[in-house]
Design brief:
Layout (H helix, E strand, L loop, with lengths): L10 H8 L2 H10 L6 H17 L6 H26 L7 H18 L4 H25 L4 H29 L5 H8 L1 E2 L2 E2 H19 L1 H11 L1 H6 L4 H27 L10 H12 L10 H20 L4 H34 L31 E3 L10 E3 L5 E4 L4 E6 L5 E7 L3 E7 L5 E6 L2 E5 L5 E5 L18 E6 L5 E5 L9 H7 L4 E7 L4 E9 L2 E6 L5 E6 L4 E6 L8 E5 L4 E8 L5 E8 L2 H7 L2 H10 L13 E6 L5 E7 L8 E7 L2 E6 L5 E5 L9 H6 L8
Helix pairs in contact: 2-15, 3-14, 4-9, 4-12, 4-13, 4-14, 5-6, 5-7, 5-12, 6-12, 8-12, 9-10, 10-12, 13-14, 14-15
Length: 716
C-alpha cells in the first residue's frame, strides 16, 4: 500500500510506534508456549554447561547416543504426563516398563515369536496393566495414588520373581533377527529409531491433546471432574482410556529397552516413577490436573536425564549426584512456581505500552469567533426519543419505513416506531456490544459487534453471522485473525462491507487502554459477499473508528479516534490504494461518519481535546505511570461531558458544528444520521436518542435511498 508521505508520519516513526522491546516481551508473556520458559532455560543452560565441561559432549556421536538413552525414559514420562493432566497419577509406570521389558524378552527368546508379534504382544501387556488401573480408578473410583502404588508393589515383585526364574534362559539364548536388532540399534534419517518413534508419538500426542475431542475432555476432567461430568463427558471411560494409554507408552519404552539391552535385571526401571513425576511437574504439568502439554513433559524429562547423565560422566559419586539434582530441582521448581504465580502480574504491568501520539494542533473553540468549530447550543434542546428506554445507543439508523434503530450496550438492537417513535421493541438480540450499523440493498441490517465480528439481521429479525475473522498477520506473535473489536462499517455499491477493527490488543471493556497507549493497533477490513472472504486492507492504524463510503463510492472515509483525524482511502482512480489525510486539526476524538443530504458528511466527536490531554499525548512515560499508579476513575481523559457534531465537505473543509457544551442531553456523542430533514443523535453513554430539525435540509432524503436508490419492497 502506498501512502502520501506529506500527510503520513515517517516510516521510522511508524516503526517506533508499532514495535518496542517492552511490547515484544509483553506479547511473548501472553503466549501459552512461553509459560515453561524457566524450565526451558534451565534445560538449555544444562546442555550448554555439560557441552563445555565434558569433552566430546556436543559431538554428533554423543548426541545420537544420548537420544537413544533418553527415548525410553521419555516414553515413561509421557505416560505419567497424560495421567497427571487427567487429574490422576500413575506410580506404576516404572514397574510397568520393567515388566514389559521382561515380557518382550520372554516372547522373543522363550516363545520365539517374530519381532512384529513380540512388539504387539508387549504393547498388549502394558495396556492390560493400564486397563487394570483404569478400571479401578475410572469405574470403581479408587484413589489414583494408592491404586497405582499397590500396582507398583505387585508389578515390582513380579519382575523380581520372573527375573530370577528366567535370568539364565535370557543369558544363554539368542536369536538372529534383523528387525529386532533394528529396534535396538537402528537409525532413521540419522536419528536413533527409538528417538524417532518418540518424536512421532509426541507430534501425534500434541495434536491428540490440543486439537481433538479426547484432549479437550481430558483437560476438562483434570480441571474438574464434577464439572466435566455435568457437561456430559464420559469421565469413567476417559480415565480408563488414559491409563490404558499410559500402559501402552510404558510398553513402547520397554520394547526398545529390551531390544537395546537384552537383559531383565531386577533394577530395571527402579525409581523411574518418581523421576518421571519430578520431570513432568518440573516441565510445567500441574499436579492438580487440567494443565500441561507433551512438550512441557519432555522439557522436564530432558532436564532430569541431562542432570543424571552429565553428573555421572563427570565422575561425581551417586549420592552427591542425587543431592545436587535434588537441590537444583528444588530451586528450579521454586522459581517456576513463583514465576507461574506472578506471570499474570508481569503481563499486566508490561502489556500497556504507551507511545508518543502525533497530534496536530487543536483549533480554537471560542464562542462567537466565527470559526466553524465555535461552541454553540444547537443540541441542548434536542428532542429526546426513548428517554430512559434505551441504554447507550452507540449508533442509530432509520429504515425505509422511517423506523428508528439503536445499538445498545445490552447486546440488543432496539427499534422505535410509530408517529412519535413511542413504540419500543427489541428488534434483535445479537450479544456482544453492537456498534456501527448499515442496511444492505436487501434491507438486512448489518451490524459491527465488538467481541464477535460482523453480523446481520434480516427483515424477519433472523440473526446471521457475516464474518468473525480476517487473515492473520504472519509476523505477529499474537494471532490477530480474530476480529476483536469491530467498530463501524459501511457498504459499497458492489456489496462489499468495509469495517474498522479498532484494536487487536484490547477488548470492548478495556479499549480505553488502546487510546491511552496511542499505538496503531487497529485496521481496516473488508468482507466480500461474492467470495465470502475477509481480508485486511490497512493494518497499523491508530484506532480506526467511523467508516463511510464516499458519495461517489470511489473512496472510504476513516475516522481515527486517537489521532483526531479523518483519512481517505482510495478504492478507484489514479490514487487507488493510497491513504491520505482528509481532515486535520479536529478539536476532538472522532467517531462515526455518515453521509449528509447535500453531498457533505457528518462527523461525531466522542470527546473534546484539552491542553492537558494534548500534553499527555506527547508524554508516554506520564501515561504509563498514570495507568500504573492511579485508579481508573482518576485517569486523564478528553472532555467527555461535551457533545459535538461536525459537518464537512468532500475536500475536507469544515462547514459548521453542533454543540451541547453542557453534556446534559448529549454527551459522548458517537453517531448521527440524517433522515428526511432531521438529524438523529446516538451516544455511548446516553439514555436517549436525540433529534433536531435541520434548516434547509432535503425533507425527502433518506440514507437507504442514497445508497440503494428508490427500491420498492412490499411491506410485511
Amino acid at each position: 500500500m502506498s501512502m502520501t508521505t506529506s500527510n503520513m508520519i515517517s516510516f521510522s516513526q511508524r516503526l517506533r510506534a508499532s514495535y518496542s522491546p517492552r511490547l515484544l516481551l509483553s506479547e511473548l508473556l501472553m503466549k501459552q508456549w512461553f509459560e515453561p520458559v524457566i524450565p526451558f532455560l534451565l534445560m538449555i543452560g544444562l546442555l550448554v554447561y555439560f557441552a563445555i565441561a565434558i569433552p566430546g559432549y556436543a559431538s554428533l556421536d554423543n548426541f545420537q547416543s544420548l537420544m537413544r538413552l533418553y527415548a525410553e525414559f521419555g516414553f515413561v514420562a509421557l505416560g505419567m504426563a497424560f495421567c497427571l493432566i487427567a487429574g490422576g497419577i500413575d506410580l506404576s509406570v516404572g514397574a510397568n516398563f520393567a515388566l514389559c521389558n521382561f515380557a518382550a524378552l520372554f516372547f522373543l527368546l522363550v516363545m520365539e515369536w517374530p519381532a512384529w508379534l513380540v512388539a504387539l504382544a508387549t504393547l498388549g501387556v502394558g495396556m492390560a496393566i493400564g486397563a487394570i488401573n483404569g478400571i479401578l480408578i475410572g469405574y470403581i473410583k479408587a484413589r489414583p495414588f494408592l491404586t497405582t502404588l499397590v500396582t507398583l508393589i505387585i508389578l515390582r515383585a513380579s519382575v523380581n520373581i520372573l527375573g530370577e526364574k528366567y535370568a539364565t534362559v535370557f543369558a544363554t539364548n539368542s536369536v538372529e533377527n534383523d528387525a529386532w536388532d533394528f529396534l535396538g540399534e537402528g537409525f532413521v534419517l540419522g536419528i536413533p529409531i527409538n528417538a524417532a518413534v518418540l518424536i512421532l508419538v509426541l507430534l501425534v500426542g500434541h495434536v491428540f491433546l490440543s486439537r481433538s475431542r479426547y484432549g479437550w475432555h481430558l483437560t476438562a476432567i483434570g480441571a474438574s471432574r464434577k464439572a466435566a461430568r455435568h457437561a456430559g463427558i464420559a469421565v469413567e471411560r476417559m480415565l480408563f482410556a488414559t491409563y490404558v494409554l499410559s500402559g501402552a507408552l510404558c510398553a513402547a519404552g520397554g520394547i526398545f529397552y529390551a531390544a537395546r539391552q537384552a537383559s531383565a535385571d531386577s533394577r530395571t526401571g527402579v525409581g523411574w516413577e518418581f523421576s518421571a513425576l519430578t520431570a513432568v511437574v518440573l516441565g510445567g504439568v500441574s499436579l492438580a490436573g487440567g494443565k500441561g502439554t507433551v512438550w512441557r513433559a519432555m522439557i522436564g524429562a530432558i532436564i532430569i536425564f541431562a542432570l543424571t547423565n552429565g553428573f555421572v560422566r563427570m565422575g561425581i559419586p551417586g549420592y552427591i549426584t542425587s543431592g545436587m539434582i535434588g537441590v537444583i530441582l528444588l530451586v528450579a521448581v521454586g522459581i517456576d512456581v513463583k514465576w507461574s504465580k506472578n506471570r499474570g502480574k508481569a503481563v499486566q504491568k508490561m502489556y500497556v505500552n504507551p507511545a508518543q501520539v502525533p497530534l496536530a494542533p487543536a483549533p480554537s473553540l471560542q464562542r462567537g469567533s466565527g470559526s466553524p468549530y465555535a461552541q454553540n447550543d444547537r443540541l441542548i434542546n434536542a428532542e429526546a426519543i426513548g428517554l430512559d428506554r434505551v441504554e447507550g445507543p452507540e449508533d442509530v439508523i432509520l429504515d425505509r419505513q422511517d423506523r428508528l434503530y439503536g445499538a445498545t450496550r445490552d447486546g440488543n438492537v432496539i427499534r422505535f416506531s410509530g408517529p412519535n417513535f413511542e413504540h419500543r421493541e427489541v428488534f434483535a438480540h445479537i450479544g456482544g456490544r453492537p456498534l456501527g450499523m448499515q442496511f444492505d440493498k436487501d434491507e438486512n441490517l448489518i451490524v459491527a459487534v465488538a467481541g464477535m465480528g460482523v453480523y446481520g439481521v434480516k427483515p424477519n429479525q433472523e440473526v446471521f453471522k457475516v464474518t468473525d475473522e480476517t487473515n492473520r498477520t504472519w509476523y505477529k506473535l499474537n494471532d490477530d485473525s480474530r476480529l476483536r473489536m469491530a467498530d463501524d462499517l459501511d457498504i459499497a455499491p458492489d456489496g462489499k462491507i468495509y469495517f474498522s477493527d479498532c484494536t487487536t490488543r484490547y477488548e470492548m471493556t478495556t479499549n480505553t487502554l488502546d487510546l491511552i497507549e496511542g499505538r496503531p493497533n487497529g485496521r481496516l477490513v473488508v468482507y466480500d459477499p461474492a467470495t465470502r472472504k475477509t481480508r485486511t486492507l490497512i493494518s497499523h492504524f491508530h484506532f480506526p473508528n467511523g467508516i463511510c463510503v464516499s458519495h461517489d463510492a470511489r473512496s472510504i472515509l476513516i475516522a481515527s479516534t486517537t489521532l483526531c483525524k479523518v483519512y481517505r482511502y482510495w478504492l478507484e482512480g489514479e490514487k487507488k490504494g493510497e491513504l491520505e489525510v482528509l481532515l486535520d486539526q479536529i478539536p476532538g476524538n472522532c467517531d462515526n461518519i455518515n453521509r449528509a443530504s447535500d453531498g457533505t458528511y457528518w462527523l461525531a466527536l466522542v470527546g473534546i481535546r484539552t491542553p492537558a490531554f494534548d500534553l499527555a499525548s506527547r508524554m508516554p512515560g506520564f501515561r504509563l505511570r498514570m495507568v500504573k499508579q492511579t485508579p481508573i476513575d482518576e485517569w486523564l481523559a478528553p472532555g467527555l461531558n461535551h457533545g459535538c457534531v461536525l459537518k464537512f465537505t468532500e475536500s475536507g473543509e469544515v462547514l459548521e458544528s453542533f454543540w451541547d457544551p453542557t453534556g446534559i442531553s448529549h454527551s459522548t456523542l458517537t453517531s448521527m444520521r440524517e433522515h428526511k430533514g432531521y438529524l438523529y443523535l446516538g451516544g455511548l453513554e446516553n439514555n436517549r436518542i436525540g433529534r433536531i430539525k435541520l434548516d434547509g435540509a432535503d425533507p425527502t432524503w433518506t440514507g437507504y435511498e442514497a445508497y440503494w436508490g428508490n427500491k420498492r419492497r412490499d411491506k410485511a
